[in-house]
Design goal:
The chain is an alpha+beta fold. The protein is 37% helix and 21% strand.
């Protein structure tokens, strides 16, 4: 009989228990930071209607989503797909529960998303994202943009990143206003794409790409000058942008919003490296204002490890209510993979369980082992019991692979009601005494 291939599908992450425990610790720490900053956790369905998922995100996204083949019996529910991010399902969620949540709605989501991209190192088809969003009703002050960024910085500080990171912030209104003032709105999509890829190619390639659009040499100079603006001082950023001589209202509004966000993030995170960078525009077209990306300073080749932005109209496909929002995400699966490969996370050495109990033969041993396990679990400890007729040495070898501490129980230990606990990492021993259950 032909044996079935048991390796995971390309682009899917699968971890051994010790490494999974480390991944879970990262996830837990991030969730704790989100909760401390007042974000309420929710879970949206992994499967949603295709029309919901693609309402605002077409193009490449439509090619990447996983369609669900077998769905409901009725045609109205047959066209479904796996979600590719948390933001679009959140917009639907807020509309569905409009009268049940308090606004501004501060929400976190930590879960798996799916994209049918070409699998490559560091790029996964199934991946965990850790998202936070704030959604307003009718309006949402720009101060929330800064709060989202500052919260994500706190979460990143808990991770063993290789060196410092830099948060690069911009505002889409600035580039939109620039293109409007230069009468280049018709080529906006192409120019946004060129700006988005500017640092991935030589400067002359960016210039050539702009010249190929036949937008005029003066406009090429203004756009390339704009692209090079990158400062950690809000005043200098403002000055350089004003030197472009653009009078468009969106352009001015974007500058003011960027100034507020920069100043607040620096107040909230005085030790973080935060800059205004006009190369940051973000690929998804639902962003309308603040946009940001976070990079490891010494490892720019890794790419962005945390990103997000402001979206004013994402819920407009589901309701006439105005529900502006701002959010950001840490791509945990990819980041964990990167940290492993850069040696920040070595192969996990700490066993996932706290206690392993090895029963010996004798009267009353089984009953007391079960009682002891129950008491330890009641105190919040994880406990494994090794059953069977294996040799004691084999049982202890097993325990050393799965637990931090070992208890070997026989009649002597039960009669004395004293249990020797051995630390399997250090070899140190201590005596554990637990009361008999009544």
């Amino acid at each position: 009989m032909k044996q079935i291939n048991t390796s995971p599908i390309s682009g899917m992450q699968e971890l051994l228990p010790k490494t999974q425990a480390e991944f879970n610790r990262f996830k837990h720490n991030i969730a704790q930071v989100f909760a401390e900053h007042g974000f309420q956790n929710i879970e949206t369905p992994t499967i949603d209607r295709t029309e919901v998922l693609l309402a605002k995100a077409g193009g490449d996204t439509e090619k990447q989503i996983y369609k669900v083949v077998k769905t409901a019996e009725t045609d109205s529910e047959a066209d479904q797909a796996l979600r590719f991010d948390h933001t679009v399902p959140l917009a639907r969620y807020v509309v569905e529960h409009l009268n049940d949540v308090a606004f501004p709605f501060r929400v976190s989501q930590i879960g798996r998303n799916f994209r049918g991209e070409r699998a490559q190192k560091g790029r996964f088809r199934e991946f965990y994202q850790c998202d936070i969003d704030v959604v307003g009703r009718n309006a949402l002050p720009v101060e929330y943009d800064a709060e989202v960024i500052a919260t994500l910085i706190d979460a990143l500080k808990l991770l063993p990143l290789p060196g410092k990171f830099r948060v690069r912030i911009s505002n889409r209104k600035i580039l939109n206003g620039l293109l409007k003032a230069l009468n280049l709105e018709a080529q906006a999509e192409e120019i946004f794409n060129i700006v988005d890829h500017a640092e991935k190619v030589p400067a002359k390639v960016t210039v050539e790409s702009l010249e190929n659009l036949r937008i005029g040499s003066e406009n090429v100079v203004k756009i390339t000058t704009f692209i090079e603006i990158c400062e950690n001082d809000a005043t200098r950023v403002l000055s350089k942008l004003q030197q472009l001589g653009i009078q468009d209202e969106d352009f001015k509004a974007g500058i003011e919003e960027l100034k507020v966000v920069l100043q607040l993030v620096k107040l909230m995170q005085p030790d973080a490296e935060v800059v205004a960078d006009m190369k940051i525009v973000r690929g998804l077209d639902y962003y309308t204002g603040t946009v940001f990306e976070t990079f490891l300073i010494d490892y720019p080749e890794i790419g962005s490890i945390c990103s997000g932005g402001r979206y004013e109209n994402l819920a407009g496909y589901y309701t006439e209510q105005k529900l502006p929002g701002v959010g950001g995400s840490i791509g945990l699966t990819r980041l964990f993979y990167v940290l492993q490969n850069y040696g920040t996370i070595t192969e996990a050495t700490e066993a996932p369980l706290e206690y392993c109990i090895v029963p010996l033969a004798g009267e009353g041993v089984v009953e007391r082992v079960l009682t002891l396990a129950r008491q330890l679990r009641a105190l919040g400890h994880s406990v494994d019991i090794v059953w069977g007729e294996k040799k004691l040495g084999d049982k202890i070898k097993y325990a050393s692979k799965v637990a931090k501490k070992l208890l070997v129980l026989g009649e002597n230990e039960i009669n004395a009601n004293e249990f020797e606990v051995k630390d399997l990492n250090t070899g140190e021993k201590e005596i554990l005494v637990l009361a008999h259950e009544k």
